[in-house]
Structures are given as C-alpha cells and as structure tokens.
Description:
The complex is a heterotrimer. Chain A is mainly α. Chain A has helices at residues 17-20, 27-42, 52-77, 85-103, 107-126, 135-154, 157-161, 178-199, 203-213, 215-220, 225-251, 261-274, 279-306, 314-333, 338-351; strands spanning 163-164, 168-170, 173-175, 253-254.
Amino acid sequence: MAHTTYYPPSGIYADSFKKDIRIVKTRTQLILAVSAMLLLVAVPLIPGLNSPYLLRLLIGIGITIIICLGLNILTGYCGQLNIGQSAFVMVGAFTSGLLNHSFGWSFWACVIPAGMVAAAVGVVFGIPSVRLKGLYLALTTLGAQIILTWVALFHIPLTSAGFTVEPVKIGSFYFDTPERFYYIALVFTAVMAFAAKNLMRTRWGRAFIAVRDNDRAAEAMGIDIFRYKLIAFAICTFYAGVAGSLLVHYMMWAQLESFTLNDSIWYVVMIIVGGLGSIEGTIFGVIFITALKELIFVIGPMLEGTLAFLPIGAGSGLLLVIIGGVAIFFLIFEPRGLAHRWNLIKAYYRLWPFGY
Amino acid sequence: MLKLSNVEVKYAGVILVLRGVSLEIRGGKIVALLGSNGAGKTTTLKSISGLLHTELGEVTAGTIEYDGQRIDKLGPEEVAKKGIIQVMEGRQVLEHLTVEENLRLGGYIRKKKSLKQDLDMVYGYFPKLTRLRNSTSGYLSGGEQQMLAMGRAMMAHPKIMLLDEPSMGLAPLVVEEIYAIIERFNAEEATGILVVEQNARAALAVSEFAYVMENGRVVLDGSSAKLAENEDIKEFYLGLSKFGEKRSYRDVKHYKRRKRWL
Amino acid sequence: MEFLGKIVIAGLMNGSIYGLVAIGFVLVYKSSSVLNFSQGYMLLLGAYIFWFFKASLKLDLLPSLLLALPSGFLMGIAIERITLRPLIGQPLISMITVTIFLSLVLEGLVSLIWGTYPLEQITVFGRGSGTVGSIVLTTENVCAFGVAFGAMVVLILFFRYTNLGLAMRGVAEGHQIVQSMGIGVRRIFSISWGIAGVAATIGGILMGTTLGFQLGLSHIGLLAIPAAFIGGLESPEGAILGGLLIGLIESVVSGYLGNAAGVPATFVVLILVMLIRPYGFFGLERIERV
C-alpha cells in the first residue's frame, strides 16, 4: 500500500538495528518537530489565530486524528477493512458519558474504561475476521455500525435521547472553553500519535504488516494471525473509545447523531487520502478532508442565497459536486495518498540539486 | 516474419532493460531465446506482445516489425489480433474459470463458428485436458495448467506464438511431453514459435535457431545444432565441460572459464 | 397466518429490488474488483432521469423507458470513463474511494438539478392490483419481482454462454492474461459499468414508483451491499437470492419485533451466515496454492 522508496538523509547510516528504527533520525527532524509542537502550543495565545472557530476546528481535527490513527493501524497496517469506526467511537463516548452522568466519575477516571469497553466490543466484532477476508470483512464492521446504533437507540433509554456530561477538570479548574480544551486535545493527540508511531516499530507492528501483506506466509512464520488481527481490532477500537470519551467531555453532551455510518466512511476516506499505513499520512488526510468538509458547511449556505433561481438545496448540491470532483481529481493524481507525496517531497529536498 | 531491430526498452522511463536487441522469427520455425535470470528474455517477449505497455514499460528506440508493419506502439489486444499470442510465464490460467471456458476465451478473436473445431484441435494435442474440461482450472496441477495456458494460445491459431519458460517448475517427464507437443504443433500448424528458456537443453533440441541473451543484449546466435556444440554454451547453460567429463575441484581452482563474449 | 403471508410477500418484493441493485454491485465487482459505493446514487440519478422523461416531458411509459435505460447505460460508461479509467493500475483501494466521492458528486448533481425535496408522485405501471388468497398484490410489486427474476436469468445465461460474458469473468481474474488473448480490458470495463448503470436505473424506477422519487432512494444501496455479499460478490444469481433473503428477514423481523429491528437483525443473521460461508453462497473462493 504505502510502498514508497525511502531515501535516508545523506550521511545518516543505520549501522545497528536500534539506529534503524529510531523515529527521529536527524537534528533537522528534531528541530522541526519541536518547533511544530511549540507553534501548536502557542496557537491559543497568538492574536488572530486564536478565534474560537479555528480552535474548535483544531480540536475537532485532533480528536479525528486519534480516531483515524486507530483505524489506520487496523486497516492500513493490519489490512482489515473497518467501515464502522464511528460506532466504536460511540461506544467509548457513551461509556464515558454514562460513567460520568450516572456515577459522577471524572473524565480522568472515565477515559481508560471508555477505551477498554470500546476495545472489548471491537474484539467481539473482530472475531469474524478469523474467517472473512478483504472486502467481505467490511460487512461485519458495517453490521457493527448498524447493530450498535440500534442498541443505543432502542435499548438504552438514556443514550437514545442524549444527556449532559461534565467538562474535563483538574482540581477545580474546568477545561470548558475551546482555548482550555485545546490543550487537552493537543496532549492526547500527541501522545496517541507518538504511541502509534512507536507501536509500528515493535514486534506487534511488524506482525500486523506481515498479516496484511501475506497472511499465509505470516502464518508459516509462526505468527498467530487470528490473535494479531484481534489485537489490531482492540487497538483500533481503543483509540476510537478514547476519542469518543474526549468528544463527549468536550461537547458536554452525548447524543447518537454524532456517530453515523457517514462518519465512518469519512474516516476511511481520510486515511486513504492521507496514505494507508502511514502515521503522518493519517494526520495529513484528516486535515485535508476536514478542510474540504468545512467548505461545504461554510460556503454552501452562502451560495444558497445567491443562487436563488435554482431549486431548493441546489447550492449545497453544487458544492457536493465541486468537493467530490476535487477529491476525485486529487485521487487520480495522487492515488497513493498524501503521505506518498510527502515522502517524494522529502526525497526531493534531500537529493536536491541532484535529484533524478 | 517478425523482426526486432535494435530494440531498447525502458521501464518507468529510468530502468534500461533491453539495450539494442535484434532478432528474427520466420514463419513456421521454432526459435529459442536463452539466457539467465534478468537477461531480458521476458521483457523481449513483452515488448513484442505489447504487454509492456501495461507495466510502465516502453520501447524507446529501435523497431519491432511484423510483416513489414510496426507493432511496437500497439496495445496487447491489437497485437494479439494480428496473430501474435504470448503464453505468459508461470502457468497463467484464469483460476475460477473451467478448463473449457479458458479455452473458449482463447478463441475470443476467432469466429464463433470454428469454436467446436478449435476445441477439438486443442484436445487433440492435449488429451489430458479433455477429461478435465469442466474442472476449475485453479485446482489443476502445474503441468496441466501449463498445457492449458498453451492450449488457450493455440485456440487463437496464432501466426507466431511466444512461449515464456514452458518448463518452469515442471518435472522432467512433463517437460519432455510439453516439448514434444510444441514440436508437433509447429510442424502441423506451421506456427512460428519463439520460446524463451532457462532449460537450454530442451529448447536447443527442438529449435532451429537460437539466440543467447545477457544483460539486455543478444550476445550469441546461430543454428541450434551449432550452438549446442559451442564450448561456452556447454559450460554455462548445459553444465557440461570437455564433452561431458566429470569435473574435478582441482580444475576449478586452476582455471575458471571466462565467458568469451564479455 | 395471513399476516405471515403478507409480510413474506412484502419481503420478497422488496428483496427482489435489493437483488437488482446488488446485481449492479456484482457486475462492477466481477469485472474490475471494485466495490462500487456509488451504486445507490447511480440508482437515484437513473430514477430521476426516468422521472424527467415521464413527468417533465410527459412521455408515455414505453418511450420514457426506452430513453431512460440507454441513458442509464451512458451514465455508467461516462462514470467509468471519467473517474475510473485514469486509475487503472493504481491500488484498488483508491478506486473504491473514488466511488465514495462519486456518490457525493451524483447526489450533488441530483440536488443541483431537481432540488432536495421529493418530486411529484407519478403512476408508472397503473394502479392495478390482484389478490392471491387473501394477500393483495399490486402491479408494481409483480413487475419488480418479474424484472428482477428476468434480469437474473438473463445475466446467468450471459455470463455462462456468451463470449462477452466469459470475457468479463476473465477480466476479473487477471488483466494481462486476457489482454494477451486479444480482449480489450477497457472495453469490458465500459460495458460492465454501462450494464450496472442500466440495472441501477431499473431498480431506481421500481423503487421510485413504490417509495416516491426522493433523495432517500440512495439508501437502498445500504441494503443491497449485504445482499451482494451474502450471495457472493461475483455471482448474479447469488445477488438475487441474497436480495430476497435480506428482504425476507427484514420484513419478517420488522413484522414481529417492530419496524426498527429489521435492518440490525438482518445484519446479525448475515454475520452468522458469513462465518459459516465466508465467500457468501455463490462467491468464488480464493484459490491458494501454497
């Protein structure tokens, strides 16, 4: 999937395995990473950038990145298609919300259980992967979406109507405004992204890739493919659960409508556009697609007014056409995702001016 | 007559695989193309059949002519319609289709009326396939799949058949059987055959003329009988030296034969 | 008993339409291994095109059909030509994603031209109805059923006995092999998308007459996906049987356990069935020679 030739920076040799798997290999990378982090930390303090709208957008992007990181571990690295991710986000969200609403647990006590419950449910829906392969597995995850939504809608009175959830707090300090919650989201996103990047250079990560690339060969090498598929499902849905927990405590309101099949499909689209099997790609993809979607909601209603001669709904229709069209064009020119392009740019930069 | 003159092939615009290959196949003759792995034999075949275009390859210099017309820019399906059919390496059958369905597809470019007759002809050459006509081709044995792949090409009544390593991974007995059929098909249907082989002995035995490739070039050619007597061919492709004498380690130490054409 | 009969009939009627839509999935999947997520929206567009001929231009049933079905064919070909052809040879998952975006474009196109409100209801097959025992059958139901079965039989024969059908099956197995036999892969792609467009249009017309011409028609795609899966992604007969089965389960469960339980219950049953038959009823198993 993401088979991009890797050009190491010139002069950087990996003469031991430990060096080869290092995440940060050069000083430039370190400087860039640290400065990016500092910039992100400073965003709420910079006038002009710190509008609530932008911060809310960034928080949304952060939470979506966590969701998609999990999905990319399962789909991109382990090769198991999941088109029901938002249902697992919902499980995490409702677990966390209910623990808070009914038992008064704080966010910090809820977030891990939320991830665990989502992971447990995820493993149950991962069991069919022992028999189903490829696209056929999409059916079970689609089923997960529909069945879980149905359970939440008709069998748990609280979740069908929606309920309030307390914001995150430390001591008596409430993270209830976008500026404050931004930091929670930033910390969680950074930690989860680092964990994902790290996971992929462990034994488990390599096993996932082996299962994806050739399950028969992986089995012949002594990898218990069923076990690793379930682990991947558990990790994927754990990420979803944590993100769900963050989401309800940020919105301070838990409702079913935030977790639809459409969302699930968008998550898949994000990781594909970003690049399957790439942590950086996940981040690019989420940002790119979120920006596209934001256009629909901002420009759509504006167009509606000026195009009054067309039938009702035509403005948003036109935008759908434009956005779908842009995305299709994008895929035609960059079918391997943004991460591929990113690597090409890096390679170009490293080989310049002798790149050929 | 199929004629390659000075053909150069690049993959993806950067990897130079063929560096000027020239060869000729006259109608009704069997020609062998020998060489080790990576010499460019398969690429030569693909450049003829047009399959190159499906894998980012391109003929960047030289020409491929068939009966005086250039075919190096044509897509694979047009080349096939001209009567040049390639049998790909590694027993490529359409797995989920039955044997007979595979064969019927082979006759896709022929008129529908002759289907029955064509099928009978192929079953005549490969009696084994008759029994298997309704079984799923993915479950056949290696030899049977190779026969099926060749039979499928025969269905099109090719003027020239490009055979890519028909002996790959098959037992010696099966190889013999397959080469016997190649000879018979050539004799009876007057089809020109270009056979690419690692198994030089088998290929030299049936062919009239042979080319040896190395590093994307033709380094040696001549009538097959003559090549089979060539010292270098014996040493490097037939595994014989000094007329079949056993080799002792002492000789190896003293004198390592060099390929003279390099 | 009468109640059961009623819901069984209703289930079979709906199911045959699911089946028809599923056939569209199967056709495209069979030749190109692409799971076409935009099938539901092709159905929508096809239905609206028919509505345009029938209601806006006020043509009779037959001329409208004669215009709508070729339009459906052209719709399929145009989609293939513009969006999927440039991606031949690229990772499959990119092609599948393109179909997701395609559904946005198609939905946008429909709401751009016709707006987002349901269109005016039109009668298509007349308002006839008959009874079998105590069960009422409308003309539309019978037509849907008949068309679905007709399409299934035609397609089975097509794939088994015609050269073009065989070539389509061949293309699904390996592009190079069939190209080396003189079969144009691109032409085959075009034709299979064209037929999928026709199948979608027929399904859209049938759905439109029973449910009304509205944007919600695209959701049929949701139930047609499992129909295609359970029947086996490569098999037209499987698609129809899968459609019927799903229609049946949905209708029986909704009848006895309440409306909302239908779809989830269908999925529960499906997942269990798929555990026993991972390639659906008639799907092709992956042949592995280790």
